[in-house]
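Dear support,

We are seeing what looks like truncated structure output for some complexes. This example has two components. We would appreciate it if you could run it in full and send us the complete token output so we can diff it against ours.
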Amino acid sequence: MPSLLLLLAVCIPALSADFAKDVEPVLTKRCIVCHGAAQQLAGVRLDNGLDAKKGGYSGAILVPGKPDASKLIERIASAKDGFRMPPAGPRLSDAEVAALKNWVLDGASWPEGAVIGEISSRKSSHWAFQPLWQGEAPTVKDSAWVRNPIDRFVAAKLEAKGIVPSPEAPKQTLLRRVSLDLTGLPPSPDLLRRYMADNRPDAYERAVDELLARPAYGERWARQWLDLARYADSDGYEKDLIRPYAWRWRNYIIDSLNADKPFDRFTIEQLAGDLLPNATVEQKLATGFHRNTLINREAGVTRSEDRFETLVNRVNTTSTTWLGLTMGCSQCHDHKFDPISQREYYSAMAVFSKARDIDIDAPLPGELGPWLASRASYIEKRNEILKSAPVAEWYEKWQGKMRNAVLKPGTDIEWDFSLTSFRVMFDHAERVLMATAAERGEREDWRLMQYFLSNPSHTLREDKANAEKLKEIRDKIKKLEEDTPKLTQASVVIDDPQVPEQRIAVRGDWKTPGVEVRPGALAVLPAMGTDGEAARLAYARWLVSDANQLTPRVIVNRYWQEFFGRGIVKTSEDFGTQGDRPSHPELLDYLAREFRGNGWSVKKLHRLIVTSATYRQSSKARPEVAEKDPDNAWLSRQSRLRLSAEAIRDSALAASGLLSSGLGGPSVRPPQPKGVAELTYGGAKWAESAGADKYRRGLYIVFQRTSPYPMLSNFDAPDMSVACSRRRSSDTPLQALNLLNDPVFYEAAQALAYRITTEGPPETDARVDFAFQLALGRNASPVERSRLKRYLDEQPVASAWTGAARVLLNTDEFIVRE
Amino acid sequence: MNMRRDFLKSVGGGIGMMALGDLLARDGYAAGLNPLSPKKPHFPGKAKRVIYMFMEGGPSQMDLFDPKPELQKWHGKSLPESFTKDLQLAFIKPSAAVLGSPRVFTKHGQSGMELSDFIPNIARQADDLCLVRSVHTDAFNHHPGQLLMFTGSTQPGRPTIGAWSVYGLGSESENLPGFVVLSSGVGTSGGASNFSSGFLPSTYQGTQFRSGGDPILYLSSPQGVDQRAQRAAIDVIGDLNKERLSETGDTEIASRMAAYELAFRMQSAGPELIDFSKESKATLEMYGIGKEPTNQFSTNCLLARRLIERGTRFVLMMHASWDQHTNLNKGLKTNCEKTDQGTAALIQDLKQRGLLEDTLIVWGGEFGRTPMQEVRNTLDPENAGRDHHPNAYSMFLAGGGVKAGSVVGRTDDLGFTITEDPVGVHDMQATIMHCLGFDHTKLTYRYMGRDFRLTDVHGSVIKKMLA
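Here is the complete output from our reference environment:
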């Protein structure tokens, strides 16, 4: 044997690979730019032995002793452009390829602990990843202007630019502004009257406190959160089925905001409330945040594909909402600009991948008593109906056929079809079908039975009489269900330990699973501790932990955006390197600190902002500073902001007195023209709501994803498929037609006219002022008054005030907060 | 924001009423303030506008455009496993039996294009068509397929091709929307997501024309408000807005005033558009308007012509549904009887008016249908249909920029896979954008820190399709 070894050594001297001399230079020169410490494209890292052995997202790349089976060799030796590595620059020379081949053949050994190339950690110098600035608010020359520390930051910048701030807005403008900002509604005539008469120095602060305490506050700010949570009342995609209880989660949001639930708790409950010790129903149903994702129920959709898209949406939504990072880019490859690798993307996905979708009882106050009281008689009646025919036997037969289709597909094509639609229409179809009734439990068994009653497929194909009988039974059950007190349901998630570990989807394709990943946070941010907690809960806690600087920055910035029309970071959805830099970085950090320091109280933060002198400035344009502050980035004034779609609707209903004041509850369908809902695939039904429900606030309107309420889309409501961090504000003729001619707005004009003529003073000048107060929260100017009077004179008496009311509801000022 | 700065400069630092008067005298938005004012593309495109005839559901290519006599030999038999390995279909198993097409194909025009007896009128326009027999897509379900076709991604949220076109080119119309949607038949899977502006400003979203009631939502004034009263209202709204503009200096108000003027003009232009009384009897007959079963679809075809004549940039016609899982022969016949005449008339009419040379017509669905049959009811022999087939299907284009009387691409003897010149959905989009004068890689919009485009990171212009 020794002689043979000797022989080999003599005959093929190249076999003894010298790592330092032959391998390291090639790796250093040609590989580690993309596969080193700074980035690991495709998950491959070749600057140290441990990672090199681990391989990339698709698995190992080195098979010691077998160069032909090693992907690394295959890629560098390939003749195929686009496949061969490295992708740019000259090909590796034959000698270089041979050296690496020999090294692999030799066992691909890596000198113990050796790290090659430049060593850089995952640290980033990007501003958003740095700790919060801890300094004090600057001192300024014009300290008389300053009302709170916010103003010091703003004044310092303005003084540096040689700009003086704008004067405070007129009292009535300020009230209308803060009322629309805090509650989404114009001030009530009563508040306007009291406030205008209140000469105390803190009259404004008192009005603010009153507005913060109104239930309408929770509704207005819920709308902002709903945009981020891509809330809708339907599944989306082709079938776009209605989600009858989606609103239950919306109730939670409104209530939490009204109760000023600390934002850290608000966060943890929505992301992982189910995992809190002794979780309450409220905490569980908070996780409905995750359930707002779309579901495609087309027959050809595979569950694993839909599940993957759902998780992608959850990762992206969470990272946009709390971290202001566009993680979506890393689904398919390492982020080009931000320090987010594809591996980290799937680590984030692993945080959510154990979450299983389920529905639970989430009774509202007062529901439990009647439900309990009726339970025994309901079950008795139900059994009676079911026993009027051999339903149990049919149900068994149906289950047998369906199970057979699962186990032996292709044996009966008709049952194959039944199974296909069952799989998409019935959540967790196979798991429930294949379990025994006992394993399913009562709730799931009844759900399955109900599906069978509505979709018996060919169970009774040759038995017309009994098929009719089954229909009758179904209708009787339906009637019984309708007549029995129900518990409100909620869509939530729970952790399911049986879900397999998350794997990287190679090139973002769910059909190509790569290596397994552990749940985790971005490496560029402080580490997330797990302490044996479930990953989702640990992640939620980490998002709002003291260590994480990004969340408070992102959240306060988004609130700021709502009060000024643009964030301190204008790209409120993107705090990464491609986003805008903050205009006032120290102010942003001060607010972030303040927010966390005040116990994450959103109301306190809002109060701080709206009582600042900065907020209270006039919004009038200032041609003299147009050069120095063209985009008003330095806040030399407030901004005139077009109201959101919902606020426009709500303002018209409020001004006219039509607005229904109920809080929370199921979604409603105000009148919409025929043919809108019908354009969808299912020809969705739009059964107009009756009575006061027609006049509820915009956030309660059923959001049908494939045919949103036209007025909402016309005024830039997002499509609710992905998180929306800031709405656009367009200006189109369709908006004009909407406000002029939509029967909803015409009715508001009529109601406003009624109010003007019945509640207002008889004399025309005073009546015009009254009309202005109701619509715009101020009196008319002399020019405006005479113009409107001229219009009134020209119109037929009967319709004059309706016309005038319609005019006011169509002014620019009505749909703008100044 | 720069627009505002320019405006402020242009009025000399103050908002004089004179300057405002000038601004509004230009009737409508001042140049630069109107996001829909006409814009130049990257290079002069041969097409100035698009009529996209979207045939929702997946028309059966081997019964209309791509003759496969070989199918008859396989009729009733399963395809060899080598063909169907790894195949995933929406409803049927890959082992399903082949369905031969009962259609008769004949050669048409000088090009000798082979087309089915179900589309005799379209066949007469063969020499105007650029028929692509080798389109393929990644999606085999309707909604993702439609999203891919219109937005370049199977996930909702991105702008559609119509929105991108208007974003890139603006509109030539003073009184009508730049991107109009006409629908016929039943609802589509994609619904509003087929004409959404996605993350582009909603100015660019498609305006749905309705077949009943107002052609545009809220186009009619409320009952009891006649044109004079409407004018009087808009006048006083305008005057109050002008007051506010001089009070606040917010130039956005000027653009709102212009939007109200445009809305008022739309109120007259809309009814004029749908009033066919000035169309000749011959024209109405050519389209098949006023008779069944063509009336609904043909009305949309004529509306499409009238829209582009009036400056609309992109017309999306959606006809649903071609989703013949069952009763293929019957369903396909019905659809063709409804749409064949109007489609052909539109091509012919545009041609005789000299509009075809700079108008691009696109006809097609989100995918094709399988050579194999789908049977849902074994008791009914006429029940057979075809499942979704993403791997190879046909679309045709006509007019501005595409090669008339040409056939691009080829499929195998069973119509199962593409054997020559594959045209992916992103390639089709790139080619359409090329016809409009755009380098599809350069028409982008920054959103969420990234420059997005219609073709995502894919797509090549198919030279063979170009004139």
